[in-house]
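[job 4471] stage=fold_predict status=RUNNING
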Amino acid sequence: MSESSAALDNILNLDREENAMIMAELCRKDAKLRKAIESVGPFSIEKRKERSIFGALVRSIIYQQLNGRAAATIYGRFTDSFSKKSCPSAASIYEATDEALRECGISRPKLNAIRALCSHQLEGSLPTEKEALLMSDEELIEALTRVKGVGLWTAQMLLIFHLGRPDVLPYTDYGVKKGFQRVFHPKETDELTDLQERLIKRAKLWRPYRSVASWYMWRVLD
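[job 4471] inference complete, writing structure tokens
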């Protein structure tokens, strides 16, 4: 059996044995990453509360280019405005006025992206949960990024935090790159022009669990 075929296909809500297996494999493959893992502790990620791909994408759009606390505040205002605890339906959002949505703190570009996403959802052109299970990471990214405002980063966040795909490397993410620099190039405090290239190259060691290794890059910054 090949290494990739033996790998777990979902990293959400792992049991203790599965968690230990992934950590042990990453530690064996990369000694520097092992130090980060030992410092942070066990990997822990749970599926976010959005029930659909549509809802997860709306959340990711709102979170784009914001720190976690500010994004959570805006997203909370957004769901509260519909008297919901998670993302409302596409129809409900579509019927809301621009003014009401902007009052939540959603920028004009993000509002336009959410409107475009609603159109795709109402037209039935977004993959469903069942359809997504049969699609590769590359196929899903291609399908999702057809929507205006949904870029590579947004699609990758959905793959990791909503679908639990184990081998996603969000190499454009600022936090992942800064965490990588802290772990692997701590003496080089200046911005490295080739940091992204170094990350992609190093991450070849982390297959088939690049999502988990990326999570550790985020956590070392906490």
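[job 4471] summary: The chain has two domains: 3-46+168-219, 53-161.
[job 4471] exit 0
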